[in-house]
Automatic annotation (TrEMBL):
The name this protein goes by in its record: Nucleoside diphosphate kinase regulator
Alphabetic keyword roster: Kinase, Transferase
GO MF annotations in UniProt: DNA binding; kinase activity; RNA polymerase binding
UniProt keyword Hydrolase present: no
Length: 133
């Protein structure tokens, strides 16, 4: 793995950006710090201008790990998280890494044990109600 972390450009809808910034600022652990860093570097766009292949809250994300494992999760707020149900909190290291990425992008993220990993987003789908809006 490269010694330089992968930090691709990310995009976040304005309404989610504010909520996520406040969520991260109000928490006090490493994943919250990661989310805050991501929100600070994100390009913020109006809700209607966010491309449909961008990972956002409620997105179903299919990604590949650096161990060549394929994983599919839904990105959710902490209160809705259920790892056994495939619902990953945005306040986890993997959740903070996923937010704002597009299909095809890779990012380096730090696990709770301090090890660095790379994931690549393979596909992103949005909930049906969001697509109808």
């Amino acid at each position: 793995m490269s010694s330089r972390p992968l930090r691709p450009r990310i995009i976040v809808a304005a309404n989610e950006h504010q909520k996520l910034f406040e969520l991260a600022a109000g928490a006090s652990h490493a994943a919250a710090e990661s989310l805050l860093t991501e929100m600070e570097r994100a390009r913020v766009v109006p809700e209607g201008k966010l491309p449909s292949d961008v990972v956002r809250m409620g997105s179903r994300v299919h990604y590949r790990t650096d161990r060549d494992t394929s994983v599919e999760v839904t990105l959710v707020y902490p209160r809705d998280a259920d790892i056994s149900g495939g619902r990953v909190s945005v306040l986890t290291p993997i959740g903070a890494a996923l937010i704002g990425l597009r299909a095809g992008q890779s990012i380096t993220w730090e696990a709770r044990d301090g090890r660095h990993h790379v994931l690549t987003v393979l596909s992103v789908s949005q909930p049906a109600e969001r697509l109808e809006a």
